[in-house]
Amino acid sequence: MIIRILPLAAAFILATSATAQQVPLGDRSLIEAAATLKNGQFVWAPERSPAGPTLLIVNLATQRAVLFRNGVPIAASSVSTGKPGYETPTGVFTILQKAKEHYSRTYDNAPMPNMQRLTWKGIALHAGKLPGYPASHGCIRLPHGFSELLFGATKLGMTVVITSIPGVPETARAPQLLSNASAAENAAPLGQAAYSWHPDRSTSGMVSVVVSAADRRAIVMRGGVEIGSAPVRVNGDLGGGLAYVLRAWDTTGQHWMKLQFSGHGAGMDVSAEEGRRFEAPAGFRHAVAGVLRPGSVVIVTPESLKAGSPGQKLDVIKDDVAR
């Protein structure tokens, strides 16, 4: 009897601590509502963008997750990420596996409803206890109601960005991207610079390009696997983190949507002039253009691609996810 009661008790505790608390938007923007969410609360407004590629941004600094569809924010939630010693790693990930019902073989058969795996070494999105601060063993805990809705809105291969940028006012500006570089570095042309390109490492899956202002480097991932990298230079100021979503590609060319995932989070169409902000080897540009598809995402971050403590190594968790 005791053996059967314990799983039921664990499930009851999980459901109680992660009770869905959906709050109305009213006349606020979704990003404004996200900033005022209390622990365990979330907002969900899919009607604001019914169709298009989706992108989830998880911000460790603000303990918030924001879901964008076709470049428009449609949902936001409070979260609980990795506690000290088990910090959730930052970076760009793809959803590798989904399971409505999942139990941890590492942590006493703990229930992890609506699990969406981001790494094969232990990091996932799932419903869980939200105490109001980072408390997991590396995973991203969500309110149960939000986790159900998110599970239904995502697909395998969808991009998830985990960052750690404090929310900033719309008027705030990040430092000059080139301020730490020497004049010689800034003047050096990149058109013929060396780059790496290995598309055979992953032949299918969603393509994401991550540009790090701190590293002056771009990484191309397909299906969660790195297939290329190159030196880059971004001209002008970067107001926090940016993402460019390829909405469509027709006879008139590519149509991109730009959104800011720190600060006000506004989305906007991208003009043809936008591409001139980025300098990269010509061959690399051509190679990347050949693998882009509608739904592809280009993320530009002021952080280093090596930023964020990975916390305790999770290499031993091959078939499981951390709580």
Give a written overview of the molecule.
- There is one protein chain.
- The chain has 323 residues and is an alpha+beta fold.
- The chain has 2 domains: 2-163, L,D-transpeptidase catalytic domain-like, CATH 2.40.440.10; 183-301, L,D-transpeptidase catalytic domain-like, CATH 2.40.440.
- Helix content is 14%, strand content 30%.
- It is built from 5 helices and 21 strands.
- The chain has helices at 2-17, 30-35, 144-153, 183-187, 282-289, and strands at 21-22, 41-44, 54-59, 64-69, 72-78, 91-94, 97-99, 115-117, 124-127, 140-142, 159-163, 196-197, 207-212, 217-222, 225-231, 233-234, 242-250, 253-260, 267-269, 278-279, 297-301.
- The chain has an 8-stranded mixed sheet, with helices on one face. Strands 1-2-5-4-3-11-6 form a 7-stranded mixed sheet. It has a 4-stranded mixed sheet with strand order 7-8-9-10, with helices on one face.
- A hairpin with a 4-residue loop joins strand 13 (207-212) and strand 14 (217-222).
- The chain is globular.
- The model is unreliable at 1-18, 168-186, 263-267 and 307-320 (pLDDT under 50).
Shape: globular
- Oligomer, anyone? single chain
Strand content: 25-35%
Largest sheet: 8 strands, mixed
Total helical segments: 5
Which strands sit side by side, in order, in the main sheet?
12-15-14-13-21-17-18-19
Q: What is the second-level CATH architecture of the largest domain?
A: Beta Barrel
Order of helices and strands: HEHEEEEEEEEEHEHEEEEEEEEEHE
Q: Please give the alpha-carbon distance between the first and last residues.
A: 26 Å
Question: What structural class do helix, strand and pairing data support?
Answer: alpha+beta
